[in-house]
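Session log. Operator J.P. requested a structure for one protein chain; no other inputs attached. Running the standard single-chain path with token output.
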Amino acid sequence: MPMQRSMRWLLVAAVAPALLMLGLARLGGANDGASHAAPAVPDNGVVAYYFHTTLRCSTCRKLEALSKEAISSGFAKELGSGRLAFQVVNVETPGTKHFVKDFQLVTKSLVLVEYKNGKVVRWKNLPKIWQLVRDRDAFIRYVQDNARVFLGEA
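Structure written below.
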């Protein structure tokens, strides 16, 4: 009996912190430093959105970091002129949930979106980021190639 009681306490001690963090995150109590304001929509231009949820694993954070690196390292001129922007959006915060439906999101995603007169005219999800997350060079090449084509058509 004492062994079973010890095992129960060990299980409670191991699981309780995870459940507490999960509950806080769902209530909005866990803040990972991301802004909770709805993202600004440009009148004209392209936005590379990295969409995520409140709970994020290390792979999800790496997807964001590599996406940001690919856009910032390959498009300094476009970023500077406002023709291109990079935004990170938590789709579980107020004012952002519509993105899930708008861009048919099923998981964390990098989506290129073109705006004209403040309205979405076209968009493209880059699903291969998940396959390439462990190959930095291929990931960056994939994102930059797609963004170049997308911007060329804008």
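Operator note: The two ends are 71 Å apart (CA to CA).
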